Batch of 3 targets.
Target 1
Amino acid sequence: MSIDVRDLGLRQPAEWEPHESVWLAWPSHEDLWQESLGPVQDAFVELCRGISVGGTGERIDLLLPFRSREAEARERLEGMDVRFHAVPFGDIWLRDTAPIFLTGPDGVAAASFRFNGWGGKYVLPHDAEVSARVAALSGLPTHTFDLVLEGGSVEVDGQGTCLTTRQCLLNENRNPGLSESDIEIALRRGLGVETILWLGDGLLNDHTDGHIDTIARYVAPGVVVCMEPAGADDPNRDVLEAIARDLAAMRDHAGRRLQVVRVPSPGLVEDEDGEVMPASYVNFYIGNAGVVVPVYGTRHDDEAVRRIGELFPGRRTIGAPARRLLEGGGAFHCISQQQPVGKTA
């Protein structure tokens, strides 16, 4: 049986707690991104600028699948605090493929879970090894778990509470045979949480099977942000209303009834083939000095950025184009994994 990180005083901190660095992967694969590679790199650079915020943000630890991409990445990220690492990867979704970093009285540690391509839907070379490789590069103590778990499927308040969805974590394509109770035990042992709060379904056409980081995010202890429908034609209208209703009835590990704050949904966002995309404003990244919110070119962009910014006084909040990034499956939170400040090995 794997270790229980609670015995070591370890916990997954909230994202607004101080970061040592953020792990990212430079978009590089023409065969995956095709004509979108340039715009995706542009969006990636905007994310890095929002994280760096004039040198007051955290360090960027950047994976490069091959050294031939280093000069390109160095030029685009000039002036930022970046460490470059030659690590092969299938794609850039490090929220799900990298380890989840924990903190405790003796320092920071990495929790490395299994990755199976979002239930076998997108199995790319090297992705299953990214977690172990990043953990080794970090130089931190590493605890390995047999559970299939993507970082985007869990959202914590840093005080013992974890939000997740049944659509994802109870899906037979992740950990077949494990019950809800089994999953809760595994989350407690692996993340150092105590209370698990379950939502139902995520956004339409979300290939991650309802990751929590596209529908509900902690912004402070006891405070959760989710989206409100953009209108009668919002493809997620019923789901968004159910999410807000369910959150409002929940209590966290401290016994607080959750305070639910709502921001607009992007509404109907379609790809070139007319398919609904799982666009979400709450897939933002919370850095030390800045918050980067994905925007999609809809009339709700400015209001969403403004209202999310009001939730993070003291941080500079920006909106950055993410539509082309979303064509690949996610937005800014999906491609980032923060490493908290703490003692290092």
Note: The radius of gyration is 18 Å.
Target 2
Amino acid sequence: MAKILIIDDEAPIRSSLREILEYENYQVSEAEDGAEGVKLGSKFAFDVIFCDVKMPKFDGLEVLDLLKENEVASPVVMISGHGTVDTAVEALKKGAYDFIQKPLDLNRVLLTVRHALDQGKLEKETKRLEQKIQTERSTAIVGESAEVRAIVELICTVAPSDARVLITGGNGTGKELVARQLHELSTRHDQPFVEVNCAAIPSELIESELFGHEKGAFTSAVKQRKGKFEQAQGGTLFLDEIGDMSPSAQAKVLRALQENRISRVGGEKEIEVDVRVVAATNKNLKEEISESRFREDLYHRLAVIPIHVPALNDRRDDIGLLAQHFLGIICEQHGKLLLDMTEDAAKMLQEANWTGNIRELRNVVERLVILTPKGGKIDGALVQRFGGLTTTD
């Protein structure tokens, strides 16, 4: 249910607007002057705000300025019985969504509300997509520890070549980030980066996912489909959690790497592919080979350049930098000003036991951002209460 705030010093206007809006199932709040309107509009999230121009304790234009200062994103519809063209233009310049003259027309009011709500939804969706794209494209590796510097140096050396890379490390250490950085710094950076999570795809579907299938190859194959190898043509194919790949799929991947050709499931035609393969795993593949769960010849094809990403507990010097990095991103995503983090809070994060590695640290920072009171800061008491941290002792 959309929430609407009415700011007007005339009780009959507030009453008539409330009646109209509540009849349309909107939730309505009222403020009888500009000061109360600014207070309510800044404290609660309203989907639309109606604001009179002539009022005591801040007129409508002052209310617009103050709401903007308080970073209120709600669309504001100005209403006035003494409106002039100059007033309307000034209000729109200050960021008002629309300007309606009194006496209010029922249809105009409802149409304006619907349009404002639609625009709000569109802006939120646009912002969400922009944030998603920004996150997906952000490949910077954060850290100044000796371990991270060595990884970055190796990436810069290896990326321009087409050498296959095997990235190892625990869950949440940032293996995908290394893979994306390899792609971004390669000569293939303007071509697709295609990711396959081998652990998330059932063994009976992995071959179709990788190599595609022809129409009628199996019951649900109602049309031809290109696999990930073809989708990554000219670019990089990232095989994440390759240690979980089925033996039959391993054999076909090995053949594809040897011959640079694939065959779709149910097809006889061989298709040439030009992809750079980067693989990652959280398993010890040498142990998997000794237990006959992973092909040794495939391992040697993949591990031309091995890169090991250390656990966060083994690069504690980077925890402060990572926390500040995530703090900036998450505050922006949640529409908050950058929060301060006290020294005791940062120390608690640095001394914690990060079994979930960087992914866990990011989740904790996001939790702290969400739970920090407005105007507050992330301090030791907040971390102790909501961080859910354990120490290495």
Note: The mean pLDDT is 90.
Target 3
Amino acid sequence: MSLLILQLPARARLTAQDATPAAPHAPGTAEYTWVLSPDGRTLSSEGRCAAALLPRAASVLAVVGETDLAFHRITCPRAPAARLRAALAGLLEEQLLDDGEGLHLALDPAARPGEAAWVAACDRAWLAGEIAAMEALGLPLERVVPIAWPDEARPRLHVHAPVSGPLPDGDSSSLFDDEAGQVTFSHAGGCATWPLQGSAARALLPVPLPQGLQCSASAALAGTAERWLGRAVPVQSLAERLLAAAQGGWNLRQFDLAPRHRGLAWLRDGWRQWLTPAWRPARWGLAALALVQVLGLNAWAWVQRQDLAAQRQEMLQLLRSTHPQVRAVLDAPLQMQRENEALRAAAGRAGDADLEVLMQAAASAWPDNLPVQTLRYEGRQLTLAAPGLQAAQAEPLRQRLEASGWRVEATDGRISLQPGRGGRP
């Protein structure tokens, strides 16, 4: 399944020069760095363009930059799902710099109640605006993930350019004199990003460095990172980082930002696609097929009605030819049965529901040496009472009679016998 991975533009912040907010962009109007993957593991293409020009994929995922997300360590509360968001805000009240109502919180996917866990926090209005903008453009975000997060198993250090802008032109060594380069360090103790300048940047790293630390850098900052760390640093492009972030387990779309009515959105998008001119031949073909089916069903129903009328006419003719004394025909099968019963009774022959036939059927399967106490014949049913009849004897008796086409009921030492609905074979 194809996967489109987007990097959300950095949130507007106050500038250090004049302490005024940077000009914010309207959600969905900025250019987005994107990566397209056919299976979520390999890259097929990448680029940067406006939201309206983004390629289409079966699934869409957004990545939040390092400086737009903060991680806090807490003990996961034992609270129901409906109150978990409020419980997290209460635990983080003293750790958050902003008002908790204006922040969006997301819990570590590996969190367990009563155990230590990480909580991600970001500006709620900014993230909600980006999600709404993508959905308005027909790109519903299945997940929103961080580009870096606390990881005890795989500590990482990456030297990169800020998300908000490109690297300056010229020699990358000038990064020691400005704030163009950044360091993102994620390990078991947390995840932090700071500018790559001066001696303080190196002092922020723990001593000694965590075992198994994986270092990387963007192509423009690889040489600077090697001199800064004193070791060889492999190059990792932004596209590779985005793909690695998509393979993580985090999903920031939780609580009030969780996807809703996703099935309805898919149906709506599918209906819009169905109404496009490209699908016009398919619509005409489906309409023609439905019309042919309706005409065929009506023709088949007409044939069936004709056959049924012909069968009824044959039944009427058979009744009148066999029993000419019947003048008014209301129910040919029932009248035929009644006339046949009358002829049988006049001839003195026993019918299937007569006492003699029922007695013969019962005698053919009755157990040996089992006396019958009482006998009752009512209409078409014969009831035999035998107090000594055991369940082990009643079951074989019932099976033999039913095999001959009789309806049998055995309860409390009584056997009731009558002809089956379809008559005996």
Note: The CA atoms of residues 316 and 332 lie 6 Å apart.
